[in-house]
Amino acid sequence: MSAEATNSLFEKILVSRAIVTAEELQEAKAYSSEERIPLSRALTALDVLSEDDATALLADACQVRSLKLEDVEIDRESIRHIPAAVAYRHKLIPVRRSGNKLVLAMADPADREAHAAVKAVTDFEIVVFVAKTDGIEHALHIHYGEPPEQYSAETNSRETDFMEGVSVVQDERFAHIGRSIPLNRSYTFETYVEDAGCQYPLNLARTVVSGRPEDRSCPLLLQGPHGCG
Predict the structure, then answer these.
(1) Three-state secondary structure readout of 85-142
(2) Which of 10, 27, 72, 169 is the most buried (most CB within 10 A)?
(3) Whether residue 57 sits in one domain with residue 115
(4) Is 82 part of any domain?
């Protein structure tokens, strides 16, 4: 389900249950669009709904169950299955693991990018619950510590700009690369699992991303068998 579809369902629930006025809804929709946040979060930011009420309604809209993290003991072993950068960026946290299933609490269960990022770093079947944003942020701080500095908003912005331009290669000698190799946007610096053996190519890639705009057509080709990092 897309974020737009979730907002639409959320709006229908609000209207059918007469929870907000037409003026409050329009103000929240405008704020949601301006800040690029879900409608549920816009309503809490504007103090139209409490976060508890918004979370319960969001669970209904997404057809998932809600979870109060303050009443749950998070399994520390499950934390290691999701990198801190993914958890912080998408406001989600592993709660427990049961067999091949990993239970996640998410602030926005309809976030497609979040689902793609999780799928890129784990093979577990994901079971999603919705939880309050402040509860998730508190749990992230406790279980992951401070957010990783290397994944700042500025870095993510540069990475996104770079990835959007990769398929347009100026040098005709390398033009076939963008056409023949489709990009998987789930594979980013944020979801990459680092170790000592891959620091050199990783640093090279980050150098290309953070370079000047006129240098972005300079190709960096890394080749190796699947799974070599």
Answers:
(1) HHHHHHCEEEEEEECCEEEEEECCCCCHHHHHHHHHHCCCEEEEEECCHHHHHHHHHH
(2) 10
(3) no
(4) yes
- Same domain? For 156 and 205 the reply is yes
Q: Does the pTM of the predicted model rise above 0.70?
A: no
Query: For residues 66, 72, 77 and 81, what is the CA-based torsion angle, rounded to 10 degrees?
Result: 20
CA–CA separation, 95 and 93 (whole Å): 6
Mean pLDDT of each 10-residue bin along the chain, 229 residues long: 74 89 92 88 91 89 89 91 91 93 91 89 92 92 81 46 42 46 63 69 71 56 62
Domain total for the chain?
3
Residue 228 lies in a domain: no
Specify the residue for token string 């980050």: 206
